[in-house]
Design a protein that fits this description.
It is a single chain. By secondary structure, the protein is an alpha/beta fold. Helix content is 46%, strand content 21%. The protein has ten helices and seven strands. The chain has a seven-stranded mixed sheet, sandwiched between helices. Helix 3 links the parallel strand 2 and strand 3. Helix 1 packs across helix 2, helix 4 packs parallel to helix 6 and helix 9 runs antiparallel to helix 10. The two termini are 40 Å apart.
Length: 238
């Protein structure tokens, strides 16, 4: 089975010889790939809708993996018990929805060795939730597929209080900035250019609300340029 770059990266983050849960599994491509390649020993595939679960069942039966899998119909991690699996994948959903899934199944997520999370939108909301609820972000990854950038977060619950995090790192992950990831630099520069376009549209317009907006956008540009400077000495934001 050939995975897309996004799914391949997610699969590469799963540990060997574990029991895996893939929440919102859709066609079940990731757990099927991992089982076929004998990376994981067992997988629970869940989805809130019957259609995707039936698609996953077809993939499993085609590859004769029924002995190593279990299909469960239900939303979020409500289909799991604490300590039933080692790692949990929650991918292909919005960051707010993933946060809600973790919140609603907190004890299950807290007990997992690792959460592998791939938000389609609002990754900053997900990071904020993780930091505020004592989930340590172990690592972060970024993948470019079909002209779209996908962000992937590895996290686990920590008994230690997480230090306060600069809010800029909710949107632009600190670990990727520290690694000077070229895709992250590209994303930051894109945001800078968007902000500069806003300032150009505002132009010389006057008014209290306009001035407030101009200051807000200018401050954001300054903050983003600081991130770029942390990645490397670069004054070219074109």
């Amino acid at each position: 089975m050939k995975l897309t770059k996004r799914l391949e990266k997610i699969a590469s983050l799963v540990s060997e010889d574990i029991t895996l849960a893939d929440v919102g599994t859709d066609h079940g491509y990731i757990p099927v790939f991992l089982l076929e390649n004998k990376i994981v020993k067992r997988a629970i595939l869940s989805d809130i809708n019957k259609g995707p679960l039936n698609n996953a069942r077809e993939e499993i039966e085609k590859r004769k993996l029924e002995e190593f899998t279990e299909l469960r119909l239900g939303g979020g991690v409500s289909i799991l018990q604490a300590n039933e699996v080692d790692e949990i994948i929650i991918a292909g959903m919005g960051g707010i929805l993933i946060s809600e899934i973790i919140r609603d199944g907190f004890e299950v997520c807290k007990a997992a060795d690792k959460l592998i999370l791939q938000p389609m939108q609002a990754p900053e909301e997900l990071r904020k939730y993780l930091y505020e609820n004592n989930f340590e972000i172990i690592d972060e990854h970024i993948v470019n597929e079909d002209f779209r950038i996908y962000e992937i977060i590895e996290a686990r619950y920590s008994d230690k209080t997480i230090d306060d995090v600069d809010e800029i790192y909710y949107e632009f992950p600190k670990k990727l900035v520290e690694r000077k990831d070229p895709l992250m630099k590209e994303l930051i520069i894109k945001k800078i250019n968007q902000c500069q376009s806003i300032l150009e549209k505002i132009g010389n317009a006057q008014g209290e609300a306009i001035e407030s907006r101009r200051n807000e956008v200018s401050e954001r540009i300054d903050a983003l340029k600081i991130l770029i400077d942390k990645m490397e000495d670069c004054n070219d934001f074109k």
